[in-house]
Amino acid sequence: xxxxxxxxxxxxxxxxxxxxxxxxxxxxxxxxxxxxxxxxxxxxxxxxxxxxxxxxxxxxxxxxxxxxxxxxxxxxxxxxxxxxxxxxxxxxxxxxxxxxxxxxxxxxxxxxxxxxxxxxxxxxxxxxxxxxxxxxxxxxxxxxxxxxxxxxxxxxxxxxxxxxxxxxxxxxxxxxxxxxxxxxxxxxxxxxxxxxxxxxxxxxxxxxxxxxxxxxxxxxxxxxxxxxxxxxxxxxxxxxxxxxxxxxxxxxxxxxxxxxxxxxxxxxxxxxxxxxxxxxxxxxxxxxxxxxxxxxxxxxxxxxxxxxxxxxxxxxxxxxxxxxxxxxxxxxxxxxxxxxxxxxxxxxxxxxxxxxxxxxxxxxxxxxxxxxxxxxxxxxxxxxxxxxxxxxxxxxxxxxxxxxxxxxxxxxxxxxxxxxxxxxxxxxxxxxxxxxxxxxxxxxxxxxxxxxxxxxxxxxx
Length: 461
Hints:
- The protein is α+β, with helices and mostly antiparallel strands.
- Helix content is 62%, strand content 13%.
- Strand 3 (74-77) and strand 4 form a beta hairpin.
- Helix 1 (2-11) runs antiparallel to helix 4 (108-174), helix 2 (22-32) packs across helix 4 and helix 3 (34-54) runs antiparallel to helix 4.
- The protein is elongated and about 145 Å long.
């Protein structure tokens, strides 16, 4: 019954899980993740602000409606005559329609509009950057679930192999071929393998929870896209050069630099004169006094003669801000190019490790087969079989981990180079990692007799 208990973790009823490809999972992230939704909200905010600022270019029309109550009529005495002329009733209503149109503002209106456009561009770049980060996070967690599931399969196969080894050890001990110590070694190895299987189950649960959190999804998800490798990728110089034109962080800093530049122009415009035209029309002339006009129009201007050097100092501050953003952009550009090289080399290192372990698997499998056969013939110890089993399992897990490292480094490379939008294009030509190899010498678990010792039969006298 020991083997059946070890495999029971794989046979327990579990909630129905929906199989999703990476593309389907990415689509759900784009539809449900709150960080992306907040990014879209900010973009709509910037678009509305841009539309509001564009209204500064057009005339401003206002309607002023008011009713006034005075304590008495407004009159003008005619001295020395004892008479007075009423100029305004004590209760009156006025409705004035006025139009104001700025003709020249020293370039401040144009600067405000260009700054609003730059803010919208910054929000678009920020949204793209958030999306790229979520794609990388999704890849880490999605393929992390793939790795955890495949590792659980390897561990389950190792448990099965240890079950068989323990069964053989008991049989050989009963036949007097090996000592009890050899059997105890097999039993300890089996207990350790079962503990590893339980830990692997918990790793699957933890990885699945992280994936569900990124997807903002409550139901269990089973990945349908396997761990993969890619061969024939472009050279690292290609990814390095794409940083300059495609990375959203540089686009964000470019938009901030444009905002700072327009801030300089706006502060410079504050020291220039402004000019405007205006007009008004009284809609309720009966409420006017004898001196109030029924309509009027004209033009005006304003110029500050002295402000204590406020404009000059504000211009200097705005220029310093513009230079600061320019320097930051240069630094981030250099950092991103270096990061891209780092990610590319990490990806290549993971691929080399995968290829090495893929070759090693054939050797570890043959070693396990030979050790198992030698043990059955009594010319090898159970410890040697255990070591061979662990070596083969480590090679399988190492190959899977190398594939996972390749996948995560690949998506990080796409993010650092600004190429995340091409991930589906690359996945279309990905090479899936083969299924886990069985352990040499593994037989049908149902054929293994229970490990519990049967009552000894009485010896014939």
